[in-house]
Amino acid sequence: MTSNEPSWEALMRAANRGDQRAYARLLVSITPVVRGIVRARGGALGVDQCEDVVQEVLLAIHTKRQTWREDAPLRPWLYAVTRHKVIDAFRARGKRIDLPLDEMADVLPAPEGADPFEARDMARVIDQLDPRAAAIVRAIGIDGESTAETGARLGMSEGAVRVALHRALKSLARLRERMIE
User: Fold this and answer.
1) DSSP for 32-91, written as a single string
2) pLDDT in tens, 100-134
3) Candidate CATH numbers 1.10.1740.10, 1.10.1200.10, 1.10.3720.10, 3.30.390.30; the one for domain 8-93
4) pTM of the predicted model, to two decimals?
């Protein structure tokens, strides 16, 4: 800003009184500063999300500009709005961290062998079935019993075991779909 240009405070005062040109000049003037603050404080968000935060800041300035006290400097108010929007973006992201996994596939290979959580997850889903259906699924699907052995142990015909197994597997598929959603 040169000495003959109005200060940000003067532009904001004029904008708050309805001067659209002053408001446009203010936004053009502060946007690079806002972008720099967002990139400095929120660089971990990534370029695209930083630009989204810049837009959020500009929108917040537009909707909350009447909250700026005209006798106060504009920069601290602007920095506070920007800082809070960056924090909001980190909170919205939660504990999620976006990493390009394609580049890390060679660095972090999956360990050889079975999934250590597979048995626990499978048991948790099977436990949601009724007890007889769960017993049939465990006997045939996990323990490797035949339908004849399972039927003899549970006092059922082989045909009844096959029908019960089919129904239990359909129920497991529905439960799995609900878990994925």
Assistant:
1) HHHHHHHHHHHGGG-HHHHHHHHHHHHHHHHHHGGGS-TTS-HHHHHHHHHHHHHHHHHH
2) 666 666 666 666 766 667 778 788 889 999 999 99
3) 1.10.1740.10
4) 0.51
